[in-house]
Amino acid sequence: MDSGVVHSHVDDGGVYRTPVARRSPRRLSRAVAAVAAGTALLGAGVVACGSNEPKVAIPEGIPPGTGSPTPPIDINAPGRSADQLADWAAGLSDDIGIGTTALEAYGYAAAVMAETLPGCGIGWTTLAGIGSVESRHGTYDGSSVDAFGQVAPIIRGIPLDGGPGVAEIPDTDGGAMDGDPVHDRAMGPMQFIPETWLKWGVDANGDGRVDPDNIDDAALTAARYLCARGGDLTSAAGWQQALMAYNLSGDYLALVRDRASAYSVGVRPD
Q1: How far apart are CA 171 and CA 218, in angstroms?
Q2: Which of 20, 38, 141, 204 is the 20 to 30 Å CA partner of 151?
Q3: H/E run at residue 11
Q4: Whole-prediction pTM value?
């Protein structure tokens, strides 16, 4: 069995360390219950300071909304199939603060799952919420996403060496994928560890490679993993189970939920 996806992730202040192994079950259950009850919320229906315009109400609860529907596409179209979503992504990109290529990747991954595993019901907003927390949609620390979904410079997490708030995972790939021959590191825009990537990774952009540093491949791999772990992601229980498999942290679940919920109503997260 794989060890999960990510054990550290990047956020606006740098590397955000999730206390995976040290979080007590009682504390974790309280955090998750708080989110399920809708207590970890963004401001809803509040008048913006110094403005007569009210803020858009951010939906409460789990799962977050699935957002603007993607148009029908041929998921098996030659080349980068996600390019079919260019107009859809361009219409959302500025409002929600996600680059068009990354947004196409999230939308395509959700479209693939809707056609191949309709019982899952994963929304592109969930993938975007994860991508935001993990790597700012592939732009962490000066990285950028090119038109083919490739992220450069590559993004690597801290060594998973058992330090404060960090799980300990000895090297599983000889350093071939993550560059570390001693401990595993999370890789790419969705921050997979090598062990998990080798099991779940998929080529989503038709270039013949299964690459954790390509946001198309990473987004579809994340979608496959989440659907397998959570089952029905349109249910609160299924969505919560999927996110906790991705990262065993109530704080992480709440952060992804908040960002995904903001995307679902077409606004940037606070």
Answers
A1: 21
A2: 20
A3: strand 8-11
A4: 0.84
Domain span at residue 189 reads: 8-264
pLDDT tens-digit profile of 23-69? 332 233 333 333 333 323 333 333 333 445 557 889 889 999 999 99
Would you say residue 1 lies in a domain? no
How many angstroms separate the CA atoms of 222 and 219, rounded? 5
- Sign for the CA dihedral angle at 226, 229, 230, 231 comes to positive
> Helix or strand or coil: residue 248?
coil
CA distance 7 to 184: 10
Tell whether 270 is covered by a domain.
no
User: Would you state the torsion angle of the CA atoms of residues 216, 10, 254, 2, taken in this order, to the nearest 10 degrees?
Assistant: 60
Cα 223–228–231 angle (5° rounding)? 100
What is the mean pLDDT for each group of 10 consecutive residues in the chain (270 residues)? 45 35 31 36 34 73 97 97 98 98 98 98 98 98 98 98 93 96 98 97 97 98 98 98 96 97 96
What integer pLDDT is reported at residue 13 of this predicted model?
Answer: 32
Q: What distance separates the 2 farthest-apart alpha carbons in the chain? A: 58
Residue whose token pair is 């949609």: 137
Total domain count, the chain: 1
- Distances in Å between the Cα of 172 and the Cα atoms of 3, 20, 169, 197, 218 are 11, 19, 8, 11, 19
In-domain check, residue 210: yes
